[in-house]
Amino acid sequence: MTHCPSGDPIQYVDTQSEIDRAVAAIAPCDALYFDTEFLREKTYHPLLCLAQINTGEEIFLVDPLSDNDYGQFWDALLGKRLVLHSGRQDLEVLKLASGRIPDAVFDTQIAAGLCGLPPQVGYANLVSEICNVDLAKAHTRTDWSRRPLAAAVLDYAADDVAYLPGIEKHLTDYLNSHHRSDWLEEDCQALLEPSLYSVDPEQAFRKLRGIARLPTEVQQRARALAGWRETIAINRNLPRQWVLRDEQLIGIAFENPQGKDAVAEIKGVHRKFADRHAAAVIDVLNQPLVDIEPPAERPDEAEKARLKNMAKAVKECALSIGIEAEILAPQRELKRAARGDTDLRALRGWRDTVVGDVIRAHLPG
User: Fold this and answer.
1) Are 37 and 144 in contact (CB under 8 A)?
2) Residues 135, 124 contacting (CB under 8 angstroms)
3) Which residues contact 253 (CB under 8 A, 6 or more apart)?
4) Which residues are CB-contacts of 96 (< 8 A; sequence separation ≥ 6)?
């Protein structure tokens, strides 16, 4: 057993007896400090390669790639409140590995924003700011699927949870003293919404850059092809660009080919792809085109003025309570509000009590 710089003992877990010991150590804890290491460069779904758990007394580095029964481990872990940093991806890989998400989380990035720090503050910056420790950056490009993992790599992984207890306490004290604990609970609860971790292939077109600038029929075909590609990528667990690159997808949408040879002749499309997928692609292209909403009209001078005044008022409100305006209402929401849209996060929950009247005062009409 080794120790990380914070003094916590580190236990690497890759046998059934070690898993059982980790479960026993987790059982009495109300909260666990949690992080993951994963890979997704060669797969559609991220592959969980290491789960780091700090009980407050020792750190377990759990190897989920080892051939063991992790059922009781996941049950023990997911029954606790997990403290993590910028945890959405960690929760995604946890759900893929265990089939579940935890009952409660404390996200230190969200908490830091509510304490007046930058909205996307990194873990290393928090460790430096709060714990006065500069973390090493030497292993940021590690292949976490390789075994064995070097001792220095394991120390690096342990650091990702070693300082979370101190960070949580510091942020909690601030939030309690400023009566913002409910704000954090509301924002962290939103991370537990199951729809965040499900994929809708019909929405895959949103990842195509510049699609809104294409002719309408090309957009419609590109949307259909993007949904088909996403389904193939999910089923084969491959990155979507490995199935068909965006440029080739757009090329097919433009050309609307109606035969295998025509598919293969599109710039960048390989004959192997045409041999395997041309029939399915043509079938997708020949389905009824789905109506799409026309692009939003360019803002007129009145809308621009509303947006400017609204943004200024929100910034003043944010400054008065010592947080960034983006946390109250990001620019993309203010643009929608300036057009009259009121279905905004800024007009719900704690944000509505803080900035709702400010935004409503600048709505059109």
Assistant:
1) yes
2) yes
3) 214, 218, 219, 221, 222, 225
4) 45, 46, 48
Token digits of residue 232: 């193939």
Give the list of residues 6+ apart from residue 293 with CB closer than 8 angstroms, or none. none
Q: What's the pTM?
A: 0.92
Chain position carrying tokens 């342990």? 158
Token couple for 9: 């003992």
98 backbone dihedrals φ, ψ, rounded to 5°: -110, -15
The alpha helices in the chain, defined as continuous H runs, are 16-26, 71-78, 88-98, 108-114, 123-126, 151-162, 164-177, 181-190, 216-236, 240-243, 246-255, 260-264, 271-285, 301-321, 325-328, 331-338, 349-351, 357-360
**CA dist., res. 70 & res. 293, Å (int):** 47
Residue-wise pLDDT tens digits, 124-176 = 999 999 999 999 877 778 899 999 999 999 999 999 999 999 999 999 999 99
The pair of structure tokens assigned to 323 is 């947080």
Burial bucket for residue 198 (CB in 10 Å: 0-12, 13-18, 19+): exposed
CB 256 within 8 A of CB 215: no
Give, in order, the Cα–Cα distances in Å from 67 to each of 63, 73, 77, 320, 336.
9, 14, 19, 54, 50
**CA-wise closest residue to 263 among 289, 244, 237, 287:** 244
Calpha distance 7→268 (Å, rounded):
55
Alpha carbon distance 171, 88 (integer Å): 19
**pLDDT per position as a tens digit, 169-189:** 999 999 999 999 999 999 999
Taking the C-alpha atoms of residue 299 and residue 294, their distance in angstroms, rounded to an integer, is 15
Residue 95 burial (CB count, 10 A): 17
Sequence-ordered list of residues with C-beta below 8 angstroms from that of 284, at least 6 positions apart, any chain: 224, 225, 228
Condensed to tens digits (0 to 9), the pLDDT of residues 274-309 reads 999 999 999 999 999 888 887 777 888 999 999 999
Residue 83 pairs with which residues in a beta bridge?
33, 106
**Residues 279/260, Cβ–Cβ less than 8 Å:** yes
